[in-house]
Specification:
Two copies of one chain form a homodimer. Chain A has four domains: about 200 residues, Heat Shock Protein 90 (2-Layer Sandwich), CATH 3.30.565.10; about 70 residues, Orthogonal Bundle (Helicase, Ruva Protein, domain 3); about 140 residues, Ribosomal Protein S5, domain 2; about 55 residues. The first copy, chain A, has 13 helices and 16 strands. In chain A, the strands form two sheets. An eight-stranded mixed β-sheet of chain A has the order 7-6-5-8-3-2-9-10. In chain A, strands 11, 12, 13, 14, 15 and 16 form a six-stranded mixed β-sheet that branches. In chain A, α2 packs parallel to α5 and α12 runs antiparallel to α13. Chain A is globular. The interface between A and B is large, with 72 and 73 residues.
Amino acid sequence: MTSQAFEEISPADFFYRNRDIAGFTNPSRAIFASIRELVENSLDAAEIAMVPPDIYVRVTYSDGDPDSNVYKLRVEDNGSGITSRHIPSAFGQALFGSKYKLKQSRGTFGLGGTMAVLYGQITTHKPAYIVSSTGSTKVYKYRIMIDIQRNKPIILERKVLINKEQWHGTIVEFSLEGDYFRAMPKILEYLKQTAVVNPYANVAFIDPKGRFYKFTRVTTMMPSPPKETLPHPYGVDVETVKRLIQMTSHRNMLDFMRTHFHRISEKIAHSFLEFTGIAQTKNPKKLGPQEIVKLVQMMKRYEEFRPPSATCLSPLGEELLKAGILKELKPEFTAVCQRRPATYAGHPFIVETAIAYGGDIPRKGDFILYRFANRIPLLYDEASDVTFRVVKTMNWRRYKVSQDMPIAVLVHICSTKIPYKTVGKEFIADRPEVKREILNGIREVARKLQRFLSKREHVEREKRRLSVFSKYLPKIARFSTKLAGKETEPNIERLLESVNTVGGKEKNI
Amino acid sequence: MTSQAFEEISPADFFYRNRDIAGFTNPSRAIFASIRELVENSLDAAEIAMVPPDIYVRVTYSDGDPDSNVYKLRVEDNGSGITSRHIPSAFGQALFGSKYKLKQSRGTFGLGGTMAVLYGQITTHKPAYIVSSTGSTKVYKYRIMIDIQRNKPIILERKVLINKEQWHGTIVEFSLEGDYFRAMPKILEYLKQTAVVNPYANVAFIDPKGRFYKFTRVTTMMPSPPKETLPHPYGVDVETVKRLIQMTSHRNMLDFMRTHFHRISEKIAHSFLEFTGIAQTKNPKKLGPQEIVKLVQMMKRYEEFRPPSATCLSPLGEELLKAGILKELKPEFTAVCQRRPATYAGHPFIVETAIAYGGDIPRKGDFILYRFANRIPLLYDEASDVTFRVVKTMNWRRYKVSQDMPIAVLVHICSTKIPYKTVGKEFIADRPEVKREILNGIREVARKLQRFLSKREHVEREKRRLSVFSKYLPKIARFSTKLAGKETEPNIERLLESVNTVGGKEKNI
C-alpha cells in the first residue's frame, strides 16, 4: 500500500513556492510589488519617526544593459530605521516583522520586504544591501541572502560606520528580474495615488531610462500617528484570551478585564462579570478550558461594551480627500463624506468616500474607481473588491446617474486590521459591516451629486428657455410694432433681463 | 526617536491572524472550508491508495443543542492513511504536509487539515480526534491540540488498537463554531459538483437535522493516478537549481541535466550544454553563483526542450465530462472539448471545456459557470477567476449566442500546480498561457453550439413552413376543386409529406 510522504517546509519556502498569493505572479507584477512593498515600509517607518517622509526610489538596469530584464531597485527613506540586530531578519526572514500589532499600518503581513528580497534572489542569485540607522551614532550596512529552506538570513558582510549627521532611515538595494516597461503604468499610477493620499510625503522616482518623477509634499503637517490598541471584547477568540491569561500579572478577573481589553471601565467589567456568572475575584489563570470558551461567548452576547474607539485610527479627513481629488481630477463637482467609526470582528474602522463628476474624468462606460486602504492605493483585482461590488449593485438610477457619465468614486478604508483576501494586498473581503459602511458612504455622496445634477439640469432648462426668448422676442417685438403700425419697437431688454435673472440665480446656488 | 519593535511569529500564528486569506472569513465560510479541505484530503488519500473513495461526512450539533452555533464535524475515508508518527503534525502543524510535490493533487498548500483543526480550536477550545491506519496491523488514535504560537501539535492522548480487518483510512473529528444553515446551499452544491467530477467516489453526508445525502459512484474505474514529475527547465529558478545541485550525486553536468529535469534526453542535454557554453564534464557542485544564474537564463532561451509531458496529469476526459453534464443539467445540447497539454512556467496543464444549452439550465440573464481545478469545484469569488473574465470578454454574438439564453459553461483545469490566488483555493490567477487555453477551449465548444443553434433555427423555419403548408394546402385543394367544378379533392398527403421530409431530415442531423 502506497502511503503519503510528509515533509515540513519553512515559511520562506512556502511563500517561495506560492508567490502568486503574495502578488509576485510574473515579472511585471513582481517589480510592481517590490517597489510597492518597500515604499509602504518607508512610509510606515517615517510615520513612526514622526517626520514627513522623504522617499527616493530608483530602478536601473542591473548591468547597465538596456536589453536585459534584470533591474537594480533602490529605495531610500528617512524613517525610524531598524536596530542593527534586526536588520538581517527584517529582510531575510519570512514572518518576522514589526507589523503584528493592533495598529493601523500600511504593512499587515510583515512579509513585503522579505518577499521582495527573496524574489530578487531567486531570479538573480545576488545578495541584497541594507543600510540603516535609528539616528544613533552608528550606521549599519549589511549584505545578506536568504536561506529559503531554513527561513534564515545569511549575513555575507556587516559594516559599522560612524553616523556623523545623526541620519536615520533605511536604504534597500537589490537586483531582480522584472518587466519594468509593462509594469510602468501601474507603478506611476501607484506613486501618483500614493502622493494624493500622503500629501505630506516627498516621493522621487528615477526609472531605468533616467526619467525623473517627483511628487512634492504640499504640507508638512503629519496626521497624528496611529496608536496601538487593546483587543476589543467583540473581536477576540479563545486563542487571544488564552494568550492574555498567560501573560497577565493580574490575579483577579476584574483587573484582568479592565487592563487587557479595549474600553472596559471598572463599571463595565463589573457588570459584564455579573452577566457571565464568573466571580470578580477569580484568578484568570485558574479558568478552565470551557470557562474560557464561555467567557468568549459571553463577550459576544453582552451588549453594553462601548464600541471601539477610533482614536487609534488615522483617516484622511474630508478636506484632504477633497484636495487630492481636485488636484488630480479637476472635476466640475465633488462631494466627500467621512463615515463615523464602525467595527467588524472587534476591529475599528472608518470609511471615507468621495464622488467626482466631469472635468478631467473621462467617460468610459464605467465609473472610475479609486480604492485606498490605510493610505495605500489598491490597483489590481478591482472586480474582486468589496467596493466594486457595492458600486456595481447600487441602484444608480435613483440618483439620476448613468454608467456613461464621467464619474469617479473614491473609497478609503482605514482600520487596525484591513480584511485583505490576499497577502498581496490587492483587494478587500466582503465583510458585511464594511460593506454596509461603504454603501452608506457612497449613497451619501451620490445624493449630493444628484442634487448638483438636478440643479444643473434646471439651469440648462433655464438657459434654453432664455435662448428661445432672446431669439424670438425681438422678432415678436418687430412684428407687433409693424402690426400696430408704430415706428419704434418697445424696449425688450428689461423683459429679457427678468428671464435671465431666473437662470442666473440658479447658477449661483 | 521611536523605533520599530520586531517579533517573529510562527506559520500557525500567521494563518491564525490572517484567516481571511485561507478562506476562514466568517462562521459560514469556516464550516464550508473545513468540510471542503477534509473531503479533498480524503479524495487525494483514496487515489494514493488506488481504491475508489468512500467518504462519509457528518455535521452534528456539538452538544445536541440545535440553538447552538457549535457543530461537531466528522469526516471518514478509506484512503491510504497516515503513518502514526506523522498524524499529529499532519493536523497540528502548519506547513507540514504531503502536498509539496510536483504532482496533480487537490491539496496544494498542505494547510487545509491544520487550518480546519485550528479554527475549531480557537472557537471551541476543544481537542481534535484523529484515527488512522495505513492498513498495517495497527490503528492509531490521537487526541491533539495545536500550540499556535510554537506551531507544534500537543498530543493529549495516543492509543494503539489492533487492526483486525486491515482497515486503512483516516477519521477526523472536531468541534467548531459555524453557521451551518447559511453555508448549507454551498456545501450541498460543493458535494454535488464533487460527485460529478469524481464519479468513482461514494460521498455520504449527514447534516445536523439528520438529513442524509448520498452521492453514489457510477463506476469503480479509477483514472490512472497522477505521477510526480521532475521540474521542467522552462519553469525553474535559481533556487530550484541550487537545491538540485545540493542533492545531486552526479559529478558532471550532462548527467545532472538528464537526471533532474523533465524530459531531457542525452541528446538534448548535450546540445543544451553546448548552447550555454558550460562544459559537459563540469561538476555541478562547482558552478559559481553567476554560472547558475546563466544556466537558468539559458534554460529559458533554449528552444529545443520538449514540452512538459502530460502523462503526470489526470484530466477528466470528454466522455466523463459529458456524462456529468448530462446527469446534472439534462441539456438539450452539449459539446465538450479537451485541449492538448500546454505549459505555464514549466508546469504542464490541460484545459477541458464544455458548453450546455437548454434542458434544466435556467435563463438567468447570465451564463451559469462551473469551474473545476484538479477535480475540485470552485464555488466562491467567481468574478475574480480567469474563466469568468474569459467568458465575459468573449464576443458571443459571433456564435449567435446571447446572455439571456439558458447556457452553462464548464471549465476544468488540471495541473501539477494550479495558480491559485488565495490559500483558500477560490479562484485562479490570470496566467496568460492558461487564459489562452481556456479561451480556445470555450471557442471550440461555442462553435459547436453555434452549429446546433443555426441548424435548430433552420428546423424551426422548416417546421413553420410545414405548418403553413398543412394549414393552407387543404383549403387551397378544396377551393381548387370547387373552382374546377369537381367533386373529389386531390390527394395532398404526398405533397405535404415531401415538405415534411425536408424538415425531418434536418431534425435527424
